[in-house]
């Protein structure tokens, strides 16, 4: 969690004045940064405080709310932009953990990541197969990828 505090200023600086983050940039809309900052700045004892998991999809929703294009392609683009942010955070947390863990912990971290990658693929493949033929299928698969990546990034944030 402390590692994320170090990352937030860089994420905010990368934001600049947000119109829309460049696809794949890892930048997130201010609504997502604000949500994460709010969740992290509250006391863990405050039961009414937002959880960081509540922030998943906030960026994608903000992106969709600023666009006139309501197509599935636009929705998937917004999910991909938020997924890019969470992937950047996941990569940052993974790298930080690699530097701070002892050999046995590092071995476990690598094994968990190696197991997580195919799990995410299988989870989203299941969404795809269970909704075969549905108009919403690709949007739901896109959300699945974003959500799974976000939850893994959050998991790594709290690893130490």
Note down, in words, how this protein is organized.
With 160 residues, this protein is an all-alpha fold. Helices cover 69% and strands 0% of the residues. Helix 1 packs antiparallel against helix 2, helix 4 runs parallel beside helix 6 and helix 5 packs antiparallel against helix 6. It is globular, with a radius of gyration of 16 Å.
Name its key features.
globular; 6 helices; 160 residues; mainly alpha; single chain; Substrate Binding Domain Of Dnak, Chain:A, Domain 2
What topology emerges from the helices and strands here?
Blueprint: H1 2-15, H2 30-40, H3 58-65, H4 72-100, H5 103-130, H6 137-157
Question: What's the quick description here?
Answer:
The protein is mainly alpha-helical and 160 residues long. The chain has helices at 2-15, 30-40, 58-65, 72-100, 103-130, 137-157. It contains six helices and no strands.
- Provide mean pLDDT, rounded: 84
User: Structural class, please?
Assistant: mainly alpha
What is the CATH class of the domain at 1-6 and 74-160?
Mainly Alpha
Radius of gyration: 16 Å
Strand content: under 5%
Number of strands: 0
Q: Tell the overall outline.
A: globular
- H-E order: HHHHHH
Q: What CATH architecture of the domain at 1-6 and 74-160 do you see? A: Up-down Bundle
User: What separation lies between the terminal Cα atoms?
Assistant: 8 Å
CATH topology of the domain at 1-6 and 74-160: Substrate Binding Domain Of Dnak, Chain:A, Domain 2
The share of residues in helices is: 55-70%
Helical run tally? 6
- Biggest beta sheet attributes: none
